[in-house]
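The instructor's notes for this session suggest beginning with a concrete chain rather than abstract definitions. Hand out the sequence below and ask the class to guess, before any prediction is shown, which regions might be ordered.
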Amino acid sequence: MPSAIEQIVDAYVRLKNRGGLDELMMHRQRLAVDLKSRSGYDFSLPIGQIDEEIAIIEAGLRRLKAENSTAV
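After discussion, reveal the predicted structure:
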């Protein structure tokens, strides 16, 4: 069963919502930077999850780009 982020990315790709994907990406990148700058606690688990979500969003952006280039 696809994760929530995979379902969200798939919906944005189907709707050709590049802006939504960009916003998701920026939000996850800000979270990653914030967590990586903190100390006093092991944030490796949430950082790893955010990195996985970023990879899923990047794949969605590539799919959207591929769809747009084949539509021309």
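Then share the key points. The CA atoms of residues 3 and 34 lie 23 Å apart. The helical segments are 4-14, 18-37, 44-71.
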